[in-house]
Structures are given as structure tokens and as C-alpha cells.
Design a protein that fits this description.
Helix content: 10-25%
Order of helices and strands: HHEEEHEEEEH
Largest sheet: 7 strands, antiparallel
Structural class: alpha+beta
Number of helices: 4
Strand order of the largest sheet: 1-2-3-7-6-5-4
Strand content: 15-25%
Length: 171
């Protein structure tokens, strides 16, 4: 729902988690009596270890050492990390189904985005961006053989968002 002037975060009747009040970072809406642990992806150090410093980009031996790190990859919310975004370097997770965008699942995507304090930006593929500041926290790429979800490693609700995308976008 891009441009929704009625947006209110957190939604009426839902209390914001006090831990994040000082940063202003949005958090998963939870009922006041029901607190949930928010978890960011636990792959940040793994992703960093795959990247080269500018002075290392021509070093084949260091590349080969980093390449071996991909022999064993982490999982998050039951989904295996399958790569990194080319320009952004966000970890990519393979959904266990192939998604074909249609009206129904784009509406589901917009609902997920709304629940996480985001809006959907529809470019070549949809990106979820925070209402507060427009930072991209996730993107969903649909390809002929696979569907990939890219999630910002430092996003405080990364695991919850990845789980919701996986569960709610199934046909």
C-alpha cells in the first residue's frame, strides 16, 4: 500500500517494544500482554567472511579460501542460505516453492510489509522498505526455477520476516 496516509505504527491497540524506543526502529507489533523475542539473522559474520576487502579482490588464493566457506552454509528459519545479492550483499534464502506473482499474493506481501512497518516498492521485483527512512529490509525474487528472499542481516526482525514471507506467500 504505497502512499497510505492512514498508516499508523504501531497499529492501534498494539504496544511498541520499549527496547527499541530509543532508536526509533520499528518492531513487530505484539499485543501488550504477549511479548515476543525479536531476532535478526545470525549470518552477519558468515556473510562478512565471504566478502573481500578492496586490496584482496585480485588475490586468487584468498578467494579460494573464502570459496570453501560456501561448502557448509547456515540455515535460518529452516531455509538454507543459498547466496548473496550481487550489489547489496544481502543473504539470499531459497523458498521451498516457486512463486508466481499475482494479485492475491501481492496483497499478502503488502499485508506482511504493513505488519513489519514497511511498504512494498515494486521494481524488477518487490522490495520491502521501512516506512521510517525507506531502508530496504528484504526483497523477493521470483525466477523460473526458484524463489529467493534477500534479507538485511542487521534487521532486528529478520528471522520473523523471513518466516512470514515463507509461510504466507505459499499458494
Amino acid at each position: 500500500m504505497v502512499g497510505n496516509s492512514d498508516f499508523r505504527y504501531p497499529p492501534k491497540g498494539v504496544e511498541r517494544n520499549r527496547v527499541f524506543e530509543t532508536t526509533g526502529a520499528p518492531c513487530l507489533p505484539v499485543q501488550a500482554k504477549e511479548r515476543k523475542t525479536m531476532t535478526k539473522l545470525n549470518v552477519g559474520s558468515y556473510v562478512s567472511s565471504l566478502k573481500a576487502l578492496p586490496a584482496q579482490v585480485r588475490d586468487r588464493q584468498l578467494f579460494l579460501e573464502r570459496a570453501r566457506l560456501r561448502d557448509t552454509v547456515p540455515e535460518v528459519a529452516g531455509l538454507e542460505l543459498v547466496g548473496l545479492g550481487g550489489s547489496c550483499g544481502k543473504p539470499a534464502f531459497l523458498l521451498p516453492y516457486v512463486l508466481r506473482w499475482n494479485k492475491e499474493n501481492t496483497l499478502k506481501l503488502e499485508k506482511i510489509a504493513e505488519d513489519f512497518g514497511c511498504f512494498v516498492e515494486y521494481g524488477a521485483y518487490p522490495h520491502l522498505k521501512l516506512h521510517d527512512g525507506g531502508q530496504e529490509v528484504a526483497a523477493v525474487q521470483d525466477w523460473s526455477q526458484a524463489t529467493l528472499v534477500f534479507v538485511r542481516p542487521g534487521y532486528e526482525l529478520g528471522v520473523e520476516l523471513l518466516t512470514r514471507l515463507n509461510e504466507d506467500l505459499k499458494d
